[in-house]
Prior knowledge:
CATH topology of the largest domain: Rossmann fold
Number of helices: 15
Shape: elongated
Largest sheet: 6 strands, parallel
Amino acid sequence: MPKKTIRDLTDAEVRGKRALVRVDFNVPLDAEQRVTDDTRIRAALPTIDALFERGVRTVVLLSHLGRPKGKPEAKYSLDPVARHLATLTTHPVTFVETTDSDEALKATEDAAPGTIVLLENTRFLDGEEKNDEVLARELAELGDFYVNDAFGSAHRAHASTEGVAHHLHPAVAGLLMEKELRYLGDALAAPQRPFVAVLGGAKISGKIDVIEQLLPKVDRLLIGGAMACTFFKAMGLETGKSLVEPDRVDMAKALLARGGEKLVLPEDAVVAPALDAGGAAHVVARNAIPAGEAMFDVGPRTTERFAREIVAAKTVVWNGPMGVFETPPFDAGTRAVAEALARATAAGATTIVGGGDSAAAVEAMGLASRMSHVSTGGGASLEFLEGKELPGVAALDEREGSH
């Protein structure tokens, strides 16, 4: 069901108004409280700029940072994020140390036109994660209309993502949210074929629902990462000290039987006695994993096969690394997949990287700009791929005449 976006707002709804925008500024900070990766902050700028271009008076930003337990914690303050934001925009940025107070309300009303007001971490508020109705009503007073541009938090029904949308209208999607929903939605609803999904990461349990959803839709489902070891176990192979989920082996067996030709598993593995023993890493066939060693990456024959499938595809969705990519030499499989996606994009395919570790990997490898779309939300993109409705999206206004 298409949701309204900021493009659907009339001039009367926008001009001279306060836009209350939920963004995802949950970014990493170093020991000196400096932002070390501003991808998510930069991703929100097009929406902020578009609102000012439409004549909004003030953009009021809400975000969480980290996991404080419903009360203020200095290390989770958004103050350093506000300072960093000020370096990325020509608009003056004001930081307000509270969120649901008279002081915050006054700051949104008194801000000079063209100002961005960033309020303190929403998770400092006890009612935020409980989606408290009283808090949602108080947050609704901070703007004249609501924009949710925080795809990374859209799978959470919190006061600032879902609750507020019931009390402040119009309630619409921002440009980043719109882009996320378009890429992920089109990939699932009407993919150009061949449609290839690449799934990796440690655990099959975290991806079961994704596999269930994607298997009927894709032409190929490539499985890498430690989750492949649970499938190996289901095939009766020796997995050594590799990470295996014993309680998921029967499920893996059932998926193998159902998946048939669609399900493509690694043919070889890079193994070592331990993760910190990279110097002893060597390649073995999947049926020759030594009892005393563990698989930490997919092998070269696998990456060749995966790359062939990816480059021949017209739509590719990737979620989860092929190995322990943070620890060379176990990064080769993930790098090969990222490079194959870049080649597929150049050949006209739509390539979507589903947030989390895969997004971190393509950013670290300098390949993010060569993908059609890199999602800003790991958990949210997974739930979307699982076919779940995202509460932060469901609460937004629907387009007229769309059923």
